[in-house]
């Protein structure tokens, strides 16, 4: 494992590469301050995200649910009977009843939830096992952005990768490409994938989804500073920062930023970080695709778009890839 040695005049500390601490230290030291969005999801952050899915402005979760409900028979036909479903990022958040109902309609032989958070994953697995006593469930604790193998000797026929929630939008084009190829390796040449992605639309609708009137998304974003204060002995004063949601046309992404309201210095452990007035920490990108763009991404990484299911307002898409 790569380590970064931080040398001061008195002591040498070792910081584990890829840890929260190392990401905060390097993310706040650069010319452009940025933090990986996975750190938004501590306990409170995960609860706040659940709350976001219920605010009126945040359309993705609810729209994807409607599409799943509307087209579940077609989606089940696409997956085929006795499939092995591999769900990436499955433990993050409570499974909605719709997703569970979808599992039922899919008539699966085996369900493989993959997530880095082992605790959540256990919860998800046992909850689903309770509803489907005869389903073979094989949870895999892994970061789905790294290479990992599926359990051997799986029962069932075709393997189907499932990646709902437009989580793919958080990945850069390179990461999304790597991920699609990994999925292909996991399911093999006869396999399939079902992926939810958010569609590009008018900027106002997209921005308000990430800047709701009730201020839940703002709390969700600023909670990252609270987490730094708690876990890394930071002294961020939340009242001196604000949440901001922005549209980046070149990246076709909504970005969340934490904006410094004034010039200030914040301390994390024994390090000082200077902020200019208006300087931001970029905390998340949520990419929005059009159908053609998503199809090109799929084609370039080992897939053909076989189906596209959408809501009547064209807000969200679920792609069936082969
Ligand atoms: C869970 C990654 C799909 O990008 O829409 C919601 C996270 N961030 N509001 C998204 C999120 C701010 C969400 N994903």
Automatic annotation (TrEMBL):
<protein>
    <submittedName>
        <fullName>L-histidine N(Alpha)-methyltransferase</fullName>
        <ecNumber>2.1.1.44</ecNumber>
    </submittedName>
</protein>
<dbReference type="GO" id="GO:0032259">
    <property type="term" value="P:methylation"/>
</dbReference>
<dbReference type="InterPro" id="IPR051128">
    <property type="entry name" value="EgtD_Methyltrsf_superfamily"/>
</dbReference>
<dbReference type="Pfam" id="PF10017">
    <property type="entry name" value="Methyltransf_33"/>
</dbReference>
<dbReference type="InterPro" id="IPR017804">
    <property type="entry name" value="MeTrfase_EgtD-like"/>
</dbReference>
<dbReference type="InterPro" id="IPR019257">
    <property type="entry name" value="MeTrfase_dom"/>
</dbReference>
<feature type="domain" description="Histidine-specific methyltransferase SAM-dependent">
    <location>
        <begin position="20"/>
        <end position="319"/>
    </location>
</feature>
<dbReference type="InterPro" id="IPR029063">
    <property type="entry name" value="SAM-dependent_MTases_sf"/>
</dbReference>
<keyword id="KW-0808">Transferase</keyword>
<dbReference type="InterPro" id="IPR035094">
    <property type="entry name" value="EgtD"/>
</dbReference>
<keyword id="KW-0489">Methyltransferase</keyword>
<dbReference type="GO" id="GO:0052706">
    <property type="term" value="F:L-histidine N(alpha)-methyltransferase activity"/>
</dbReference>
